[in-house]
Amino acid sequence: MIKRSITMLMLSIMLLTAGCGMIEEVGQTVNFATETTNYLQTLTDFGQDMNTLAAQAVNDLDARTNLKEQLVALKEQVIHYEGLQVPDYAKELHQSIAEYNASLQKGIDQALTNIEQGRAVFESTGIPDTINKINELLNQINQLTP
Fold first, then answer.
1. Of the candidates 4, 43, 112, 115, which lies 20 to 30 Å from 104 by C-alpha distance?
2. Which conformational region is residue 17 in: left (phi greater than 0), alpha (psi within -120 to 50 degrees), or beta?
3. Average pLDDT, rounded, for the chain
4. In this structure, are residues 54 and 67 in contact, taking their beta carbons and an 8 Å threshold?
5. Which residues contact 102 (CB under 8 A, 6 or more apart)?
6. Alpha-carbon gap, residue 122 to 140, rounded angstroms
């Protein structure tokens, strides 16, 4: 549902785009739409699973290792998304996501530290709040599409 809505929004905008370099911009638009959709879905999925993962990590070394690996992978995705080439029409959306990404990176670093120190994984990280804000942004985007 989320992927389809964002893709429809991006494709609608793409069809309204005209002028020189349209083919290049179309490719950039499709890439941005796909990357953004996949990235936001990854964050949503992690947000849904993080409490379960944290609970399992408390007493299970394998689960703790798995959670650390997922956090590191998530941080790499955050960094990758920041380097994405952004079409002009989407700069404001990308900037909003980038602001959340900065909070998310700090939270991931804190979560990794918490794991190493044996504390509650997501305590004082801000990750749940940041993911909730990203989901609110997704809901706003979804309301823009018919």
1. 4
2. beta
3. 80
4. yes
5. none
6. 26
pLDDT at 11: 58
- Please provide the size of the chain in residues: 146
Nearest to 74 by CA among 134, 18, 141: 134
Note the pTM of the prediction, 2 decimals: 0.76
CA distances from 1 to 30, 41, 88, 119 (A): 18, 10, 25, 36
- Cα separation of 5 and 100, whole Å? 21
DSSP annotation of 119 = S
Q: What mean pLDDT do residues 22-26 have?
A: 49
With tokens 């849904």, the residue in question is 48
3-state secondary structure of 100: helix
User: For tokens 């996501």, what's the residue?
Assistant: 97
